[in-house]
Amino acid sequence: MENIQKNYELILSKINETHKASIFSKHTLPKLVAVSKKQDDYKIDMALACGQKIFGENRVQEAIKRWQKRVEINLDLELRLIGPLQRNKVKQSLNLFDVIETIDRDRIAIEIAKNLNNRSKTKSFYIQVNTGNETQKSGIDPLEADKFINYCIRDLKLPIIGLMCIPPINEEPSMHFFLLQKIAKRNNLFELSMGMSSDYEDAIKFGATSVRIGSLLFGKRQV
């Protein structure tokens, strides 16, 4: 059985150590987002017992099944959607997630704007940027990012607070983290969701404010 407590403490220690040694050391310590998709329930409960409060899910239906009761018991939990969002799942998502990190196209942004209101649980959004221009991945083309960010904030009045990216597997991630940081800086966005189990230390060096970690914390997930 995975030693989630030990993994958790090690990851937090490494986040702290890397952050202190970075040029962003005067900024707030990056948050750990535990990626809980397809993990066994007992592992989730172990992470909760360790004190982990922020969790990321990729699929809306899976998240509803896993978290609907848990959020009633753990009132200080923060749930983030870190996977693609379909238009027919927007209403459900706005009622479950505190943060949605994956606004990636006009139609989704418009649908969110139509349904977002004072009763919505979601209060903050990130725009996903496809820094590697990969056809199989979601996200805005980096060259279109400035225009899209402006559209979401100025025209749709969405509370966009940051950017998110998933670098290509076969490329050096640092250049993608640097690109995301540049786009965020020139658009006055201060939250950067970047870095996963294999590259979160690099992401912190480039200003990540949250890192999304699954396998390093929970061990291998179900197929």
Can you give me a brief rundown of this structure?
The protein is α/β, with parallel strands linked by helices and 223 residues long.
Write a structural description.
With 223 residues, this protein is of the alpha/beta class. It has helices at 4-20, 41-50, 60-67, 70-73, 90-96, 106-115, 145-155, 173-186, 200-205, 215-218; strands at 31-35, 54-57, 78-81, 99-103, 124-128, 160-164, 191-193, 210-213. The protein has a single domain (4-218), classed as Alpha-Beta Barrel (TIM Barrel). The chain has an eight-stranded parallel β-sheet with strand order 7-6-5-4-3-2-1-8. It starts with a helix and ends in a 5-residue tail after the last helix. 40% of the residues are buried. The mean pLDDT is 95.
Which CATH architecture?
Alpha-Beta Barrel
CATH hierarchy class name: Alpha Beta
Helix percentage range: 40-55%
Largest sheet: 8 strands, parallel
> What fraction of residues sit in β-strands?
15-25%
Based on helices, strands and strand pairing, what is the structural class?
alpha/beta
Catalogue the unreliable spans.
none
What's the end-to-end separation, in Å?
Answer: 17 Å
- Average pLDDT confidence is 95
Provide a count of the helices: 10
| Whole-angstrom Rg | 17 Å
Number of extended strands: 8
**Secondary-structure element pattern, one letter each:** HEHEHHEHEHEHEHEHEH
Can you identify the CATH superfamily? Alanine racemase
Quaternary status: single chain
- Shape by Cα distribution: globular
Strand order of the largest sheet: 7-6-5-4-3-2-1-8
What is the CATH T-level topology? Answer: TIM Barrel
Domains (count)? 1
